[in-house]
Amino acid sequence: MRFDSQEVEQAFELYRELALKGVISGDKANTYKVNEAIYTLTNQFVDKLDADCITVGQEVHLIPRTKLSPFHISNEYIKRQFLGSKSSNSDIYLMYLCSIVLIGSFYNSYQSTEPTIDFMTYEVWVQQVNDRIESLKRHDQEQLEKLEKEYSYRWSAIIEKWETLDELKESASRQTGRTMSRLSFIDTVRRFLQEYDLVEFIGQNEVSLTEKTKVIVGRYFMEREFNRGILEFLYGFEEQEDTYASY
Amino acid sequence: MEGIELDIELSETIIKDSHERMKRVLLFDSLFELDRKTFKDLNEVRVDLRSFGLFVLLYFFEMKLIREKRIGVIEIAQFLKSISKDTYALSDSQFEDIVKIILAVFRPTGGQRKSYSFNNFELQTEDSIDFHYIKTNDFDIQTNRQFYALDDDGLELVFATKEYFQEFQLSIHQLMLRKLLEKGEFVGALRQINEMRMDVETIYERMNKIEHEIKRNVVSIETQNKFMKVIEDRNFRLNRENEEFEELHQFVYETKQNYYNLADENQEARAFEMLLKVEKALHQVHHQHQQLLNKSLQLKTQVLQSAEEALYYIGVSSFNFDNEVTSKIVSTPYPLESLKGIMAPFLPLGQFNTWSFLTVFSPQSWSETEEGHTSKTFEKVTDEEEQEQYARIIRTYYKEIFQDMMTAFEPESEWTLKEWIEKLQSSNDHRLQQRQFYDFFILCHQKSPVTSQIEVQSEESLHLLAKVMELIHRRTLICKELPDRIQVNERFEIQNMQFSLVKEVAPSEI
């Protein structure tokens, strides 16, 4: 397909704004939708950054693809921004885990494609993470360690991280998860999510999802093609694991 | 005081009509009473008596509409059976038992009334409310059957479960506003407008919700029709309400003209003022309402657009994030990188941040650093009242000093500051430790000659000497500095000066 230079320029402008803000609306969104050449070009540009465009009403959103890509925001950056200089990689993965647990708690039903709860308190959130860590601990320790040596499974570091928060301040009432340190970590995660406009801080230790998050889950995770991509991304690890097991 | 009065008014508004409001709340209680009763079918499944109770009332209502009067236990049981035979395994006699339970709740068998008592805060007494849901209608001696019919409160409950009112709330308020304006009750009208504003806000929120819903759910043909219908209904109503608003404007305008012609009397002037307020408030609400119209049109295009999107979009029928992502990652477990991958769609793209050395030569902004909280001026007493109070204290204080000084040197008309301070030192006067004491002399020197004629309001500092001027009384106080200095104590040192009280000296001589 041949493009004239004006279209290329226009497409690049759209792409630039998308990359900068993550969303375009109004006339620009309209241009994207109506002009086929610009549509194709913008999608190609975005594709080069491992991302997709989805149109939502009068807006076009840029959604980074579920994969590991050098073009996505880097761990280093997030670490510097939210976790302080002394943090390690396990901190950031724990933060990801907490975030995913949070989103999962909102979307935990096969019956509905809408969130099942309106808001989440820190206490429940911490409890949910506790549950996940508990089930991680149930894995065969030896197998985990073996996998860690062969592949980048550092789950034990994450478990340890969370458990240390436990030991420091929570020696007495372990099961409740009401520890200042865990809560403060959750609070850090909240700040991280809030910075990217993913959650709203609605009151004393309570968060709710923003429209942005709902759009991403509802329109990206639940779109058939993208959904397949996401699941393939996850199953891909399983296959790798199998190949390791077979060696 | 005003605050307290307002509070009284507020609480009066709230406890007003307690009886009526309570009645509406308690009206539903019988249904919840049914819910608390347990009745199990043959498979030990709990029967939803609350719904059945409601259906029985509605059944009575429908029968009333077609003038069927012979309704007894058997008919109702047959009806319940017809709607629930797929849900519950119940025998005919069980259905009859259920009907008897329901009737007993709505119409207690002992003949006593369905009665609730509560504390009426408005009247400050115990209050009670009776309900009559169902009454007996007829009795067939041959078959020994009792027939029932819907009573007042039963009918009210049936109506209360239909959502007529919510949709027409704004129209109802508009109607009431017109009535109030006709009667000239402008305070009530203002309240009515405020309630209208609340309606408008509720509608706005609901439309916002619909907008989000449309955004998230790509519309299939069926849902598109559903949304379209909702929006068109809304649009139709908004247009009607808009027309009503315009008529109300016209009405207010006319009323205003009438009052304007009568505006000479005091009573009418007040009413006219209220009317102006009503008009202003009405304009505001109308404006908000017009924005709703706009929004509703936007929504319509959005539905069409998302219907268009639906052509390209195929969603999964169900997706349980918790189960399919979170659990999977943790239970398998997948490598940590999977976490980052899943988070990626939620996060922005990475951005390359760089800094050019040439920035050094670009214009630098200095203002930012100075915009802190560290202001270089002293804090000022901003509150005028506080300032006034402070001035009052100082005025009295100056007066005291001056009076003491005058009495000390009476009847002489000339003295020096040094003499005065020495006197005070010998009596160990505490005022020597106060800064304001010295301020006074400096001020006197500055304003010298001080006469009682100087306009009091001319300057603030003179204002502080106002009381001193009263004491001077047709004389002039002249302060001249002397060359020596007085070391009063460790903290204060002041130049010596000479005071002289002269009769009526024109300022130009000094």
Structural features, described:
The complex is a heterodimer of chains A (247) and B (510). Chain A contains eleven helices and six strands. Chain A is mainly α and 247 residues long. In chain A, the strands form two sheets. Chain A has a three-stranded antiparallel sheet with strand order 1-3-2, sandwiched between helices. In chain A, strands 4-6-5 form a three-stranded antiparallel sheet. Chain A is globular and about 60 Å long. About 4% of the residues of chain A have low confidence. Chain B is elongated, with a radius of gyration of 42 Å. Chain B folds into three domains: 151 residues, Arc Repressor Mutant, subunit A, CATH 1.10.10; 154 residues, Methane Monooxygenase Hydroxylase, Chain G, domain 1, CATH 1.20.58; 119 residues. Chain B has 510 residues and is of the alpha+beta class. The mean pLDDT of chain B is 81. In chain B, helix 3 packs across helix 4 and helix 9 packs parallel to helix 11. Chain B starts with a helix and ends in a 7-residue tail after the last strand. In chain B, a hairpin with a 4-residue loop joins strand 1 and strand 2. Chains A and B meet through strand 2, strand 3, helix 5, helix 6 and helix 10 of A and helix 9, helix 11, helix 12 and helix 13 of B.
